[in-house]
Amino acid sequence: MEKVYFKIDGNLQLNSDHSYIYLKKTKEKSFYVIGDLIGSIINGKVYNADETFKLIVDETFILEKICRYLIGSCYILEIKDASIRVFCSCSSPGIYYTRYNNKLYFHNTEKDIYKKFGLIEQLDEDQLIAHIISHHILMRTPFDTLFNNIKKCPCGGVLKINNNMNVKTDLFIMRNIVSLKNNKPSNHLSTQVTEFGFLLENILELQAEYYKDRKLILSKSGGLDSSVIATALKKKNIKIDDSIYIPYQDSKSSDKSLAQIICKYLGLPYSKLESKAIDKNILKLRANNSLNSILGYQYLYFSPEYDNRSENKKDVYISGQNLDTLYSIDNFSPGTLSVGIAKWKKIIRKSRLRFLYTKSSFFLLGIKSKNIKKIINLLFRSDVDLTYKNFIITNSIQMREHVFPFKELAPELGIPNDIYKKYKNHRYNKLATLFVDLIASKVDIDDIEVLPIQLKNHYIRVLRFIRTVQNVTTMYHNLSKIENRVRILPYNEGPMVEYFHNYTLTLIDTIKIKRILHKYFKKHSGSSHNSFVKTYLKALITDVKDEEKTKLLIKEEKESLKCLRELNDLNNSFLYKNLKSDLYKNFIIDLYNKMDKYDFSGYSKQSMVFYRLINLDLFLKQNIVK
Known about the structure:
The protein is an alpha+beta fold. The protein is 46% helix and 13% strand. The strands form 4 sheets. The protein has a 6-stranded antiparallel sheet with strand order 3-4-8-9-13-14, covered by helices on one side. A 5-stranded antiparallel sheet has the order 2-1-11-10-12, with helices on one face. Strand 13 and strand 14 (167-171) form a beta hairpin. Helix 7 (224-235) runs parallel beside helix 8, helix 7 runs parallel beside helix 20 and helix 15 (388-396) crosses helix 16 (417-442). It is globular and about 60 Å long.
């Protein structure tokens, strides 16, 4: 999606230099579409962009329903005399907004709105530190930003603006029990595979048609999610120009890869991206222009070319990102290359954690008996009561993925306990309580513990979507402004989101992880994904030894951290100069001191803290109201 900017004045008049893809005015209301409206899939019928817009203006379905099934990163604006609604499609980066001089200003890119309206005195210091210490796909809260005067509506959300210019944020992807029952996936695996395949194949066909004048490239890791996309592309005879494998964790290995083996079998083109020397000037350009642009050492050797041209001139990369969150919520699964007894040991050991997100678990969370609760708490070694409300709260305050939500975790290595406590309190206020309030607005139940199981499942999935997935769409949108590529996410499109937000995991799913995808892949490729993994592992016998790889990775990390250190220092730190909290300021001093001494002790598993620190520091220096 290109950069989007518009404003709404006190008379609810829309002003923008942006060209609208679609515009329709009637006596009662006006409809605008901004961005990449590709199509929709509603009630088993596929609509292209023109047909979808006709559904909107004819009001064939209520607008919330249409927006839930949209394909493409776009915004739908509905304007009446006394109100405006702004819908952010599921694959969009969401929209940022602020009120200034009795006007509402909207941008879809962090850099642009921060540079125009980001005031130093409005900095949210808790949010700043969260951007440093939390995993990059968790660092943004869905409704707030780095500045108290700038808010956000995430993908899957809608802004409701009344004639007093008051703004309310809602989530149109949050359903009630009636609409969920009317759109429930089948309970039979074979039918589920058909349902899933229908959605994925038609999403890919619509995307391929929309981007037919540009190079279409598959980002191929070799994992199951991207392999299923590759299989669907082959099945539907969708031509792609290349499949590119980026060996982030394996840059010095042989040319053989799991991705290569699968692409060769499917008859798809294949390329491996080679690592290159780190360019400090490029890194600084990236950091100045986008958050999430320098994530960790393994990414620095594969940074795409800096390119700030219009997006319609860039190649389109298809990514299999986000399916884990949509399908399994948090699958705690063994790695792709795990096989045999070792794989089954990992599956069984983590099955207790996967059970938390199943239908049976949601039933147990509703039990009122104190004695049974005690037994359940002991079984799960929980630190807080296993209630649905605590499930929401503990899912909201984590700073990394794949953790047991009910466990009171110690701070990440190197993170002071006082800062960790403030982080949890911040996330409690900025996400957990707001989400509980949203649930209350959707159902007429005072006690959320007695919600139907189907709703409990649905709402925890929506929470994880706005907690995690919205960070990914924002990150990729930001990166598309500075890289030579645009990423599209088939699994992130409305029809797929809707399907899995109403999918209920069973006990079988705790053992047979992502069984729909495994079945689809085998059915349409003619072979199991596991068989390709075994073939690849046999080829690794002649590959670089594990000890040699480890030494190379350690060397690469030291080189990249040294380079990182040269990009900024404490004397030039925006954060050090502008933070008011002594606790936070001392934390920044400690991080820079460690970098000065090349002493990363205590951060052996959290070195990304330093990358996020430098990225944020350089970004804020360039993108704040002077």
